[in-house]
Task: inverse folding
C-alpha cells in the first residue's frame, strides 16, 4: 500500500517506488533551476566531486522523430552520476564485484503538466550490506539537503 503513495514535498510525506527499487520524491513548489542548484550544493556539502550530468530529457526529445516516441515526456530531465570514495571503497572491500554499484545516480526532472513540482528519484542500492546501507543513507541525505538548500521542509 505504501508503494502507491507519492511524496508531495510535505513534511513527513512518504516516497513511493515507481518500479522496484526506484525511490521518487516530489519537491514543491520550486523551479527546476533552483532545485538543480540545491542538488549540486547538496553534493558539495557531502564532499562529493562534481557529478557527471546526462541531459536525459534532451536526448529523448532529440531522438523522438527518428525512433517514433513522444518528445514531451519531461519539461526538464537530467541524471546526475557521482561516487563517494568512502562508500565505493567499502562496497569493493565487501566484494570487488560491487564495482558495478558505482556510480550512484539521482534523476532530477519536471513533468510538462507540473512545472513547479521537481521530482528527484534514485535507485536504492540493491545490496543488504554495510556498504549498501551507507550508499542509501547518502542518497537520503542528498534528498534532505536538496530540500533544505531549496528552502523546502523535509
Result:
Amino acid at each position: 500500500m505504501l508503494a502507491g503513495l507519492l511524496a508531495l514535498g510535505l513534511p513527513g510525506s512518504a516516497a513511493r517506488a515507481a518500479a522496484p527499487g526506484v525511490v521518487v520524491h516530489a519537491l514543491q513548489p520550486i523551479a527546476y533551476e533552483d532545485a538543480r542548484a540545491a542538488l549540486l550544493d547538496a553534493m558539495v556539502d557531502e564532499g562529493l566531486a562534481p557529478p557527471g550530468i546526462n541531459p536525459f530529457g534532451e536526448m529523448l526529445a532529440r531522438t523522438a522523430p527518428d525512433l517514433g516516441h513522444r518528445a514531451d515526456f519531461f519539461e526538464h530531465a537530467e541524471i546526475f552520476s557521482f561516487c563517494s570514495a568512502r562508500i565505493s571503497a567499502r562496497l569493493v572491500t565487501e566484494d570487488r564485484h560491487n564495482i558495478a554499484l558505482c556510480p550512484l545516480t539521482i534523476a532530477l526532472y519536471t513533468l510538462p503538466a507540473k512545472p513547479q513540482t521537481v521530482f528527484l528519484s534514485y535507485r536504492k542500492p540493491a545490496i543488504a550490506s554495510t556498504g549498501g546501507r551507507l550508499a542509501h543513507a547518502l542518497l537520503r541525505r542528498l534528498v534532505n539537503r536538496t530540500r533544505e538548500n531549496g528552502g523546502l521542509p523535509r
Remarks:
- Helices lie at 32-45, 56-67, 85-94, 130-149.
- Residues 130-149 form the longest helix (20 residues).
- The CA atoms of residues 110 and 118 lie 5 Å apart.
- The two ends are 22 Å apart (CA to CA).
